[in-house]
Each structure stands twice: as C-alpha cells, then as structure tokens.
Amino acid sequence: MELGTLRYFVAVAEELHFGRAATRLHMSQPPLSRAIKRLEGEVGTLLFTRSPTGVTLTPAGTVLLDEARALLDHADRVRARVSAAAGTATLTVGILGDGADPGVSRLAAAYRRAHPGIDVRIRDTDLTDPTCGLRARLVDVALTRAPFDEAALTVRTLRTDPVGVVLRADDPLARRDRLRLAELSDRRWFQFPQGTDPTWQAYWNGGTVREGPVVRAVPECLHAVLWNGTVGLAPLGHDLPAELAIVPLIDMPPSRVVAVCNQGDTNPLIRSFMAIAEAAYRR
Q1: Backbone dihedral region of 192: left (phi > 0), alpha (psi from -120 to 50 degrees) or beta?
Q2: Maximum distance among all alpha carbons in the chain?
Q3: What is the C-alpha separation between 132 and 144, in angstroms, rounded?
C-alpha cells in the first residue's frame, strides 16, 4: 500500500462521498475512484458500500481507517524527524488569496528572519477548499479567508476586509456608491463545486441559496461576470479589469483573513508561523 493511496482512502472514509473527497484532495473523481478500487484489490475485500447518495464503510473499511490514520501519522513524524536530522526542515504553506497582499509580504520577511534555514514551500490553492488542503495534510499551515468549518482546526484572525459585489462596469448598479444584498436577489451568482464547505459557499452567496455558473478560481469568477453578467462577492481593495466594477455592500459581514493549522499540532515551525503571522498583520 502506498501512503498516497491511504490518504485518498482516509479522505473518502471521512467524507463518505467520492465527490466531496475529490474536491478536498484537489483532484477529479475518476482517478480517485480507480485508486480506491486498486486498494480494495490489494487488500482483497470491499472497503466501502456504494449507493447513489454516497458510501459507507464496511467492517473491513472501518478497521483500515483506524490503521491508515495511525500509519499516516507515523509517516508524518518519520518525515519530520528525517528532515530535521538532515538539516532540511520544511514548512508547506497553503495560500488562498492575493499574493500581493502587503500582509503576506511582511509575514514572509519576518518568517525568513526568524527561520533562515527553513525551506518554505508554497501551495497556491483554488476556491474549492478554504483550508488549502490542511485537513488532507497537503500543507502544514494555511493563510486563507474565513468562514469555513473550523472543527479540529486552530484559527487566528489576522485582519477583516469589507466586501463588495463585482459587476460589469456597464451594469446600472455599478454606478451606485453602495448596495444591499436584497438588491441582487434577482441576479445569478457564481457557485463553487458540489461538496465545497457549505459554510464557505453560504458566505460568498450572501447567506442565501443562489443559482449560477460553477467556478473554481478567481479568474473564472471574473470571466463569469464579464461574459454572463453573473455577480459575486469579493473583498474590497483589489484591482479589477476596467470592464468590471466593485460596489461596497453595507449589510455584508466582513471577510476575515486567517492563519490556520490543525488543532493540537506541536510542530514548533507551525506554532512560530501562527505567532509571526499575527504580529505581521498587526503592523
């Protein structure tokens, strides 16, 4: 059994849905399904009972889930100890948002000064997973935006940003100084793929169930507005093409920039990142 395949299995076992697990792992569903079938072939038994609404663990799958979690935890500890012994400690940071944010620049500079020998690896992620792969342990820590399901995570708010609605520049509402969410009730809003964290989806839809095109990344959101007149929300202060405009929403809660790690993580590099991030964003 490969560790990567076991991570796929754990994701499906925790989500109990191939689609949601694929979204969490940032991959398409067919290769994930094939990997699980190969794993079932290797162990010689079914691990999941499939149904149109999702999957459930078989007794064998329940046993493997416990063992897989233990193996993956042990592998992470082995990797950390080997890296430390080799003098090549690494920290993988997931980032969702604007890499030109001055807060990110201050954080990067401060972290380099505090840990000059650390190899920091960046994983830039799309809008389908606000934790940037943290739950799947694809990253050690995330710099992202809330809200999302914070279960088993440690979340530190670094800054709050007001939010506006992105419109085509020739939209009659684009000439307004400010808007309310109710004034957009008849519009189509961009949506995230099925299986995306519902708290995250609800926030960017203004707390209401909406209809509209499915997008995964910021450029897709902007094109949806440009080509189809779709509307969507974005933090204020970001540069937009001349063909687009953003109008502040007066009844929308602000968007929180946050640093996130797995709850109970004792890695000193992660603890240091969280502390330095809070200091860098206070400046």
Answers
A1: beta
A2: 64
A3: 8
In 3-state terms, what secondary structure has residue 218? Answer: helix
Summarised one tens digit per residue, pLDDT across range 170-217 is 999 999 999 999 999 999 999 999 889 999 999 999 999 899 999 988
Global confidence as pTM: 0.69
Kindly give, in sequence order, each residue whose CB lies less than 8 Å from that of residue 143, ignoring residues fewer than 6 positions away: 93, 94, 95, 96, 97, 104, 107, 132, 257, 258, 259, 260, 277
**Which is it for the CA torsion 243, 213, 23, 31, positive or negative?**
negative
The H-or-E segment that residue 24 falls in is helix 18-25
Give the lowest-confidence range in 16-25, 50-59, 77-86, 164-173: 77-86
Element housing 119 (H / E): strand 119-124
Contacts of 17 (CB under 8 A, 6+ apart): 54, 55, 195
CA distance 277 to 103: 8
Is the pLDDT score of 100 beyond 80?
A: no
Residue 267: how many other CB atoms lie within 10 Å = 16
Annotate 177-195 with b (16+ C-beta within 10 A) or e (fewer): eebebeebeebbbbbbbeb
Burial class of 226 by CB neighbour count within 10 A (0 to 12, 13 to 18, 19+): middle
Convert 80-99 to b/e letters by CB count within 10 Å (16 or more is b): eeeeeeeeebebbbbbbbee
Name the 3-class secondary structure at 143. strand
Q: What is the pLDDT of residues 148-176, one digit of tens each?
A: 999 999 999 999 999 999 999 999 999 99
